[in-house]
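Support case: adenosine-5'-triphosphate complex. Customer-provided input:
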Amino acid sequence: MKKIILVRVGEIILKGLNRPVFEEKLVGNIKKSLNGMGKIDVIRSQGRIYVEPAEEDYCFAEAMERLTKVFGIVSVSPVWKINSTFDEIKSNSVDMVKDLIPKNGFRTFKVEAKRGNKKFPMESPEICRELGGHLLDNFEQLSVNVNNPDFIFYVEVREFTYIYSEILPANGGMPIGTNGKALLLLSGGIDSPVAGWMIAKRGVEIEAVHFYSYPYTSERAKDKVIELAKILASYCGQIKVHVVPFTDIQLAINEKCPEDEMTIIMRRVMMEISERIANKVGALALITGESVGQVASQTIQSLVVTNIVVDMPVFRPLIGMDKNEVIERARKIGTFETSILPYEDCCTVFVAKHPKTKPKLEKILISEKELDIKDMIESAIENTEIIRIPV
Ligand code: ATP
Ligand code: MG
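Agent response - structure generated as follows:
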């Protein structure tokens, strides 16, 4: 018997001829995610992936936790890999159930068997019946409940046989690196980390840009953004965060533009700088955490006026979500607690009491003529600090 991890994949199964490319990427991402945990073999077979540690004392719990964060994986199970003979299946099943019962207080079960190996002499219903009977003989406290069992005992007979009872759900999606790169505008708020996570889930490699208005926003506000990037990196591998010094630009906007247009002009400058950085690093799209109508700068009119600055697509995966839906997702992925730490963001420092909710592009363009901040934009890009976030 060997303890291993069974990894189930989802959508990449649909990829037809391209499937090996997606699978190889996923195998690479799995290896990266388990880096430093000890020697493993990662084996692909019949649409499944098996992670086989070399050492008996491998930390399975930690490995499973890391694997459930790898995009492209639908679920994982700790399984025992055994030879495909019914005697081995019986004796190992008894050993596995012996482990399970005291841990979980299980009283009812059913067996589900799948026979992928047609050379195996018993058919699935017979395996269920015989193995169920054998377990009942060995554990007098257990009874069978087909409709609502405390646990299902799974037996998959392939070239080898895999037995298990636990299935941990993962996030699905596509392997990171199979869908190009995008640049996430990462604030310290609740929304943008969720937006980045959702696009990364579709296999898109992420870099991040953060606009930083020191000393109007504190060192701790920057640390918070780095912390959020670290949480994202636990799903998508290494992330580079481009920290753009934004103070001079904000002061200029504050000084020269009508108060009610400040936010929208600031957002336009952010988009412009972000697109420039995206082009530099080979990102093909921008990602923001905007959602229609959430604040003045996210009315449709405002989105039109900010969107028009850039040529590349802007992905806004939260566009139709309510705040409470975003919060729920933020809690699930683990960014919420960090996002609500009370450090100011550059958008909250220079904020108008009554920002325009229906900005007109012609008027904004006139205000921006006054501004004339080309040099400031150049210098902000030049002085951008790149922070590499390790996993
Ligand atoms: P969040 O919770 O993401 O901060 P928000 O509701 O506060 O969103 P805004 O402040 O209007 O919304 O920002 C909208 C989007 O603009 C954010 O989701 C983010 O993508 C981007 N953004 C805002 N501030 C910054 C910043 N300082 N650095 C980088 N991106 C930013
Ligand atoms: Mg914000």
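The chain is about 40% helix and 25% strand.

Case will auto-close in a few days if no follow-up is received.
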